[in-house]
Request: fold
Amino acid sequence: GEKILLRVACLGYQQHALRVDEIPLNVVGVDATRLTTPYWTDTVALGPGEGRDILFTAPAYDASRAVVPAGGTSPCNVYLLKNREYRKTVNPGVPGLGGMVTEIRVYPGQSLPVQGAPNEVFSA
Reply:
């Protein structure tokens, strides 16, 4: 149920469409400028040199869909933040996901310490 601010930037020369399945995204800023009319979407388009500020509310932890991710020790729910174009989410010649894909991990309440600084990372 925590509210998360995600800032993404396209530092390349191609357009990209980012999405997270099952989590609605609220675009509140474009190129470090607050939007007067934020909008909800399931896919965020980014052009070369553009940035977006996105708010979303993390879903409640669901034990029935819990997994222990590679390199982790605690169960969590995993949501993929990925480029909508499949060929940009794989690395040629390497099995599995890669490229423009990362994970949003939701842990059971009180299982991680309180974040004391921006960008602080915890292993669970």
In short: The mean pLDDT is 88.
